[in-house]
Amino acid sequence: xxxxxxxxxxxxxxxxxxxxxxxxxxxxxxxxxxxxxxxxxxxxxxxxxxxxxxxxxxxxxxxxxxxxxxxxxxxxxxxxxxxxxxxxxxxxxxxxxxxxxxxxxxxxxxxxxxxxxxxxxxxxxxxxxxxxxxxxxxxxxxxxxxxxxxxxxxxxxxxxxxxxxxxxxxxxxxxxxxxxxxxxxxxxxxxxxxxxxxxxxxxxxxxxxxxxxxxxxxxxxxxxxxxxxxxxxxxxxxxxxxxxxxxxxxxxxx
Length: 254
Description:
Elements: E1 6-8, E2 14-17, H1 22-35, H2 46-53, H3 57-69, E3 73-76, E4 80-83, E5 90-93, H4 100-106, E6 112-122, H5 125-131, E7 138-147, E8 152-161, H6 167-173, H7 178-183, E9 190-201, H8 204-210, E10 217-227, E11 232-240, E12 245-248
Parallel strand pairs: 5-12
Antiparallel strand pairs: 1-2, 3-4, 6-7, 7-8, 8-11, 9-10, 10-11
């Protein structure tokens, strides 16, 4: 039966439908090949693999990007493509307002703070709207990369209104989580965070920081953090590699 072919029963109803596209079939073949290769082992070269699977190198390269984003393989320029050993997955609930870094440390996961940067600049229109300030107002931006021993797995960007945290204090007290830093402040009484979750194509800057291709899919948390008096104290974007995080929500019958 060919891909996309429908099979009908005597009553005229569809019995079976083979809807797998060429891309899906290729991913199935690659998944099987990766699972049969020892961790650390090298896959066949791109030309050889493309010929073996009957596809163009461009098609193969696009399929390989998916597995690289998931952390299943690692491509080294001029050397080859290698199968990555099974990695730790951060499995966490979203019911409690708590940083991913704190949860990882509590579970004894090997997570560390990678490269980070801090700067004062003017707020964009979107940031000003989220923070409830005037466009062009001064804000503090803190960006950092979360890493495992193998690779970077998340890029986090926080924007705070002027006066919430000074640049000097940020440099002195930042340990890898702006949320943790704000929660330690005796002057703030944080209460809630409104968070939107979406799958997005990684912009160029995020892709470079995470070692992936621009346009690869990442999970994005866009969050607004509130204090007890209703003020917005932080506006953030967190980008996570899908293969290294598993988020869940516990829902109860109302």
